[in-house]
Amino acid sequence: MEEKTEGALPRPEIEEDSCKGCGRCVAACPKKCLSIQEHMNRMGIRPVGYMGTGCIGCAMCFYNCPEPYALRVVKS
Amino acid sequence: MKTIEQKGMYQKFPRSGKDTRVTHYCAGCGHGIVNKLVAECCAEMGLQDQTIFVDPVGCGVFTYYYWDAAHISAAHGRASAAATGVSRARPDAVTIAYQGDGDLGAIGFNNAFQAASRGEKFGCIFINNSLYGMTGGQMAPTTLEGEKTTTTPFGRDPALTGHPLHVCEVFNQLQAPVYIARVSVADTKRILQCKAAIKRLFEIQRDHKGYALLEILAPCPTNFRMDPLKAADFCKNEMETEFPLGTFRDVEKGVTPEAIGAQHQASAALEVKSVPHVASCAELFGVSDGVDAPPAEDDPSVPERRFKFAGYGGQGILSLGICVAEAARLEKRHTLWFPSYGPEQRGGSASCSVVVSGTPIGSPTVEHPDVLVCMNQPSYERFVGDVKKGGIVIVDASVPITKQPPEGVKLYQVPAIQMAEDFGVPKAANTMMLAALRAFKATGLDDAHLETALCASFKKKPQLVEKNRDLLHRAETALLNN
Asked: What is the rounded CA–CA span in Å between residue B87 and residue B472?
């Protein structure tokens, strides 16, 4: 999935080891293109992931995320 | 490449290990969202080199690890007093005090109130999550009527503990402040309003206009005992009813108390609704009364056995340790349980040591355990090298074995997290580990005692007793069959 969407913009970029899996971004995304993933990060928490399509670059996920570096939005 | 990303923070947070840049806040914490906004506003306005933050005591204590600006740490409740000194000594600086509701609303109320009354030239960001967060969710002056906290387990009763304190409304009675507002971080719209308000606060301080107070309603999922989304809903639906949002005063923009009217005044009529219910300690904490747990008896034939349980906070590591210690108590052994965790209530590294012995125990700390139980990778890497020869390591199967245990140490990989999820009770991963301890005969304690201890640990939630007992048996059967 990752390879296919590498160039597609805008898109959120997730630093999985910084994610605490709270789900605030999933609820805030107007396009519902984020979801909690199956696998675990280093801490044993299931991190959020981008489904690969749908991002409009609104950055609602970024502002709802309580972690400074878990999520950023690449616009162009 | 144009990206929207964090500005105004350090690239690494050294407190949480050299390779991470994760805050100490629990998942879904309002502090985290506010911290990001404050750093972003400070950076966007180009004020990082001018700003001096005065940090509080409470969950917000570690902002000096995060915000890339100058910091001074104040004693509990004294951030406004310290900020007074800073703003007078450095009138050219932008001084911002960051305080919580235990800090500002309770112990430091007079410091903050008098500073506001004098019109000191600093901005105060006041995080209201309606309770004391770091110390374990006790009632704060801002706790809502009927809200359950660890010190008001039956809900805050105004007849016994008074009504919620409306800090903005109280401060709004003063002459000197130039800006008073209340915002929230419960959803996207509110977060963006909050960012605008923080910007205004910085503007006022940059222009040295006078005292500004910004109250921010923030969810505390851990102590509300809710998931992050429900906590945000609580913040929006319950807290805002008691603490209405709005700009109470912005003198430059013509917003004054007179213009706002009387609807935001502190609540008036005191209504006594019920006779306060005073609970006993046993009722509150579910502690045993000494009858069901006999005193320890000396038996030199029983050697000392040392346990270490480790993982991240929220996995039930500490409870698992208590279970083993309680089982030892039931067996009339000497036992000690010793927890170790950071300031974060969820998500940080947590571990506990348990010592069980037939003779009195010297120290509760365990450097070289006989039995090590690990629920995540960092704790496995940290403790596996310490296990004694002949010891046992039980580790969750999700953890990659990056490091082999010392020679003579037996390693069991148990899919505890996966099993708990398969059974439909993700929180019961620690019960799965208890099943593993029983299945591998790792504790040297009686199986029945371990089971009784497990049931006793759910004293406060009787509906979970049978469920966990059932899970224990199912997990044990599954483990023994594999």
From this structure: 60
Residue B2 lies in a domain: no
Total domain count for chain B? 2
Q: Write the pLDDT tens digit of every residue in B299-317.
A: 999 999 999 999 988 888 9
| Cβ within 8 Å, pair A63-B191 | yes
Cis before A10? omega within 30:
yes
Same structural domain, B66 and B214: yes
Find the CB nearest B4 among A27, A70, A73.
Answer: A73
Q: Whole-angstrom Cα distance, residue A51 to residue A29? A: 12
CA distance B214 to A59: 24
Instruction: Note whether B399 contacts A44, CB cutoff 8 Å.
Output: yes
| B228 and B322, same domain (yes or no) | no
Task: Please tell me which of the candidates A18, A43, A75 has its beta carbon nearest to residue B3.
Answer: A75
The residues that bridge with B310 in the sheet, in sequence order, are B351, B374
Contacts of B129 in chain A (CB under 8 A): none
Express each pLDDT in B386-408 by its tens digit: 999 999 999 999 999 999 999 99
* Same domain, yes or no: B426 and B350: yes
Question: Would you state the structure tokens that stand for residue B313, as one six-digit string?
Answer: 């906070």
